[in-house]
Amino acid sequence: MLGNALIGLREGLEAALVVSILVAFLVRTGRRSELPKVWLGVAVAVVVSGGVTLALTLTQQALTFEAQEAFGGGLSIVAVGFVTWMIFWMRRAARSISADLRGRLEDAIRMGPAAVVVMAALAVGREGLETAVFFFAAAQAAGETTEPLIGFLLGIAVAIVLAYLIYRGAVTLNMARFFTVTGILLIFVAAGILAYGVHDLQEAAILPGLTTLAFDVSAAVPPDSWYGTLLKGVFNFSPQTTVLEAIVWVAYVAVVLTLFLLPQRSARPAAAATTPS
Fold first, then answer.
1. How far from 240 is each of 17, 89, 193, 234, CA to CA, in Å?
2. Per the UniProt record, which residue ranges are transmembrane (predicted)?
3. Which pLDDT tens digit goes with each residue over 205-215?
4. Cα–Cα distance measured from residue 23 to residue 188, given in angstroms and rounded to the nearest whole number
């Protein structure tokens, strides 16, 4: 539940900030007449994202057990790829995203009403589709039916409130620090989902080593205990972990966390102008 709440908070705040940037730009430039088109685009993005989640759920339910495991495992790996790309993209583009969105919206207004709707839908829809796939994979890993959804919706609700307060100037949030902290936490969440995906592929007999355990701490960390549930909900920790799962988890965290914590390279200075002879 907590892991899904983190997903909802992080992804929801990114999408909400995109919307607030577009709305603030239109309000400050006296183009309130364009707001309904932006909101229509946002609504389209939300519906499409919800439809993707529903389609994934229905598709999995129609499969055999082995096919479900293969589908869930493959989708978990895809979801981890999405969230990894998103973490690094946001770190790199955070400083320029506002100017980029304003420029694209300005171009869309000149092209016509349909372009504004499409631009808003694409700007929010990218976050929505990533969220849909990652939430589905996280919910499957959690093994629950309602708690992941409740946690996810709570995270979304908090994100919307935060974005509104930031827009109104009631709250000042250090966005760089926020995305850094949530990025680190999401790396551990993603590592758990990746390990779960590997386990699914092992159960589908696509990968070997299902019965080769790296450790079994079921006695010390019962799955139904409060701390076992907490570790499962946040990091998708399994008391019975195969060797391949452990290797994948450690390798992902070691590589991705190291790259994420490396200082960003500053932009190269522009080449000096050639002095005329």
1. 40, 34, 15, 17
2. 38-58, 70-90, 111-129, 149-167, 179-198, 243-262
3. 899 999 899 98
4. 34
